[in-house]
Write a structure and sequence with these properties.
The chain is mostly beta strands and 244 residues long. Helices cover 10% and strands 20% of the residues. It contains 3 helices and 14 strands. The protein has an 8-stranded mixed beta sheet, with no helix packed on it. The chain has a two-stranded antiparallel ribbon with strand order 2-3. A two-stranded antiparallel sheet has the order 10-11. The longest helix is centred in the N-terminal third of the chain and has 12 residues. The two termini are 24 Å apart. The C terminus is likely disordered.
């Protein structure tokens, strides 16, 4: 796999949670929920004018001190350039590259597995010294898991869910309020949201019903290490897994 040095940490899609009053007076969000669902819950509970935006993601897709990414990485490459395959922008802890959101034809990838990766052509990078070729690689996506949901490849949602005991735990099913004022089931600490654009409607019905999140290109584990809320990579560095 690839190895790089120096950079900013990238974490998985899940937050450690926000206690009551941390982001807004009347709202909280449990840990083990992806950042957008967590944000929508806080908006629904408190209203947009009452949420402390400094606690949430900035325009680059990161937050907190020490600063780290959860999504987008839009300050690491030219997001608006869809003319060719996006460049490599990070190395995940399995040594595989994370690329921007675009495929070589200027479209979003439509065949990402549950880990957010697929096998296909990637461009060379003079900046990082990588070569062009057909390899398994990950993409940044607008929908969860944003970077990676597991270390792939995997052949199905079930294979992804088999990496995390939380994906089958009945005591990890939350009821989360959404901005449409409805509450939906959500499988806490499970990062298996989609496979080949088919949404995991059994465990994330709100995400599948209200977002249509995986209609085009958009949704993480060595030794069954839980990726939820853990460090999964860094921009230009290969590092050890750390608790969020």
């Amino acid at each position: 796999g690839l190895t790089l040095s120096g950079g900013v940490n990238i974490y998985g899609p899940l937050e450690a949670g926000f206690r009551l009053g941390q982001v807004c007076d009347t709202g909280d969000c449990e840990g083990g929920v992806d950042i957008d669902t967590c944000g929508n819950e806080l908006l629904a509970e408190c209203g947009a004018d009452n949420v402390a935006s400094a606690e949430m993601m900035d325009t680059c897709g990161g937050h907190a001190n020490p600063y780290h990414y959860h999504k987008a990485l839009s300050c690491e490459y030219t997001v608006t350039d869809s003319s060719s395959h996006s460049p490599v922008i990070a190395v995940m802890l399995d040594g595989r590259g994370l690329y921007g959101k675009w495929e070589s034809n200027g479209a979003l990838p439509s065949n990402l597995d549950a880990c957010n990766g697929h096998t296909g052509p990637v461009p060379a990078s003079s900046k990082y010294g990588t070569t062009a070729g057909d390899v398994y690689h990950y993409h940044v996506t607008d929908a969860p898991p944003y970077t990676v949901g597991c270390f792939g490849p995997v052949a199905s949602l079930n294979e992804c869910k088999g990496l995390y005991s939380e994906c089958s735990a009945s005591d990890k099913v939350l009821q989360i309020l959404n901005t449409d004022t409805k509450s939906y089931n959500y499988q806490q600490w499970c990062t298996c949201y989609q496979h080949n654009t088919v949404c995991n409607s059994e465990q994330f019905p709100g995400m599948c019903t209200t977002l249509g999140a995986f209609s085009s290109g958009g949704a993480g584990s060595a030794s069954s290490v839980r990726m939820s809320g853990l460090l999964v990579a860094v921009v230009a560095i290969l590092a050890m897994v750390m608790v969020h």
